[in-house]
Amino acid sequence: MAKKKEISVEEKLRALYNLQLIDSRIDEIRNVRGELPLEVEDLEDEVAGLSLRVENFNTDIETLKESIKAKLNGIEDSKVLIKKYTKQQDNVRNNREYTSLAKETEFQELEIQLAEKNVKEFKAQIEHKSDVIGKAQERLTDKETHLKHKKDALNEILSETEKEEEALLEKSAKYQKQIEERLMIAYNRIRTNVKNGLAIVAIERGAAGGSFFTIPPQVQVEIAGRKKVITDEHSGRILVDAELAAEQKIKMEKMFAKI
Description:
With 259 residues, the chain is mostly helical. It has 6 helices and 4 strands, in the order ααααββαββα. It is rod-shaped.
């Protein structure tokens, strides 16, 4: 079986730097989107919550209207019974029957009073809930308008960057396969631990890019020699010489232009 070709440290550094440039470009694209996806998601949740609230209040109002209808029907029934009992009182044979009918009439009158009180309370509840619905609906309309604007903005950004991001992710995956697992683990760990996601930086003015700590001349010579992977003792980032970085930037910029 043919032995797998061992790639040089310089080739590893170039592959790593290429990967860094690709991943940084992906970071830029995602930074353009910023918090928009989360804002859209939060607004969608708010709109759904407000819609459900309005729906529930409308259901409550319909229930209250049915209750009012039932109470009004009950009042009419009680009035019929009162009329019936009053008529029967004219034909009673003794005081016991008269008293019994009088109690039934009094009971129905109390039922009417209670039903009228309930109707008044139900109408007050409907008025209150209608007021709440009006305010909730106004807020819902504002949120829906805001959501539409945010969605339009997000869709516009997505339409401009989605294709490029997908292509870059494919390129990133391709370069990751070229890099040994040990280096990929280190690369991902460093990217996670630094704010700007730069795991690999070039030497600039005798210091690691973005750092003020000077790198000893002997170490700079070793970095330029590209014979081993060297990390910055202060930030832990992998270091490459400025010439290699410039060469790979030109190469990657040409690739980006084609995407």
